[in-house]
What does this fold into?
Amino acid sequence: MMTVTRRLHLLMTTLALLAMSGAGLAEDGYDLWLRYAPLPAAVADKVSAQARTVTVGQPLTPALAAARDELRLGLSRMTGSSPVLAESTGESQAPREGDIVIGTFGDSQWLSALDLPADDIGPEGYLVRTIAAKDGRYTVIAGHDERGVVYGVFALLRHLQAGGGMAGLDLSDTPRVKLRLLNHWDNLDRYVERGYAGQSIWDWWRLPNIVDPRYTDYARANASIGINGTVLNNVNAAAEVLTPRYIAKAAKLADIFRPWGIQVYLSARWSAPRDIGGLDTADPLDPDVRRWWREKADEIYAAIPDFGGFLVKANSEGQPGPREYGRSHADGANMLAAAVAPHGGVVMWRAFVYSETDPEDRVRQAYTEFKPLDGEFADNVLVQVKNGPLDFQPREPFHPMFGGMPETPLMMEFQVTKEYLGFSTHLVYLGALWEEVLDADTWADGQGSTVAKVVDGRLHGHELTGMAGVANIGRDRDWSGSDFDQANWYAFGRLAWNPELSSRDIAKEWLRQTFSTDPAFVDGAADLMMRSREAVVDYMTPLGLTHIMGTGHHYGPAPWVDDLGRPEWNPVYYHHAGPDGIGFDRTASGSNAVEQYHGPVGERFGDLATVPDEYLLWFHRLPWDHEMADGKTLWESLVAHYDHGVKEAEAMREAWLSLGKHVDETRRDRVADFLDVQVAEARWWRNACLAYFQDRAGLDWPAGVQPPPHSLEHYQSLEFPYAPGN
It folds into this structure.
């Protein structure tokens, strides 16, 4: 007879599963890639037969309970039949046909008795395997640690959603990057800088007493793609986040995230000892300042034992930093590193620095400032470097610091939110952009020294490695502001796990889980996603043009702006278009930014005969009649690229109209509406930019080209004071 306690447990579990399943809700995007859509009946029956029981093969912990419940949720949604939950006694007993056993290699009696290739699995890695026994086949999901078990559960669910079965399972993987973090540019008032999906999901005012269920779903989504950390607040940090009141709020989030293997980090304002500590200095060599940070770290770790550490933006865009006191970035980072080191914490020190008092080419400044410090940072410091030397543009060459600082762990910083790529209304799959950067060859140790090998530590032998993504997450029901922007969150997590994955494969993986497994849809939609990044480059910044977006909000074209207080904030600074030509000379005859790359790379970029067209005007200033490889003049080629970008946007819209039949009506129409916006804004970009460049060049329109429908003055008159993310 079932006991009252057992009945109550089953009732609570059922209610929890129903609450998590979102039964009865329309396809509004909330479930992300964790929809666990019903499998075809025949497939569902086979899966059910091999997933009748879920057992935790060792004493239950919050992390193993989270893994167990996620597995049961996914299987119940996909098959319509919820596996029975076996008691977690930790005692040795033989699994039976249809059992799924989860646990860690060393702590489970069941798993330790099996001859599993545990030595092939690293920290946080997982093994999912079908085991043949005399009583039939059963399934094992195991790892050396509980994070590995959680990731193994999601790997199995991902496999099933993509159309795989339970028979003959042999899935295993280990993350290549140690720290896989989202950076939230979220302020304490819930405004998200460069955020296009509504307010911050962190309701700081109500925390820690009121907890939004969305926090758990956020953790589930991140764990499903291997993200293991989150920086809760903006790099333009408010010192108040380090006060007891906000530490308690962060601690509540840490408690929610912990079972899913996610640590919390905080952005620290450099001047906090002055701002909230009662000191009159923030000098990193001052004993009182060093003591203040040690005590602050002790206070945080007392509340959050697994606190990850600090992210710091210093001496950049008006933020305070150690240079105010004549100290170096290494002095500043090492002081904080000493404060968190006794607790196992890290410091992520951003290399995004430039100064209006520095006449050097802006794209040179970070390398110039950090290269002399190579090898001077403490062992628990990572220098966090943007993918390119400027600022998350539609296309940039890889940052020369990758490959240029072999003695320092460099942490990649990608931007998931599309500050310069049309916000959430333009379909732009960033996986293709990131793959391009990670595959780039630095030549730091000969040919094949890719950025990916720098980031994952293989090239220079670093064990402390990391990748950060500036989050695109907000309070919008669909989390990211549009359905396809979810793919960028997903792709970031997968590439942070393994920087050498194929962005096309990741796109297909996401599409199968998010929309449909129909091959006609998956292949066609993946093609659409893969062409989207090149389309936006063509209608925004072709041939190496860069940073010609609107002031402040970075919305829409504004290549004409030249009246801002700092020269490098002006789009004109980056192209200097005039009657004599266009582009920025970064060769030896100009700013010589090419010298910051290793020989073969710098030589390739600096030579007109070998520089790729996509970086032409980034590295070279050329006359309008410069002859391109195809025989066109530079002016003709520039116009052709803008026209091609518009045609690609139109083609993407048409492709979706065909593919949409595979998708529910709500999401099909929502994507179509956004593509309408994208086409209109692609035309705007093309017309405004070409009107300006034609005016500066003083040239006739190439034969057959349609001039912009409005005057240059019309485009220059457009204003957007309330654009989101401004």
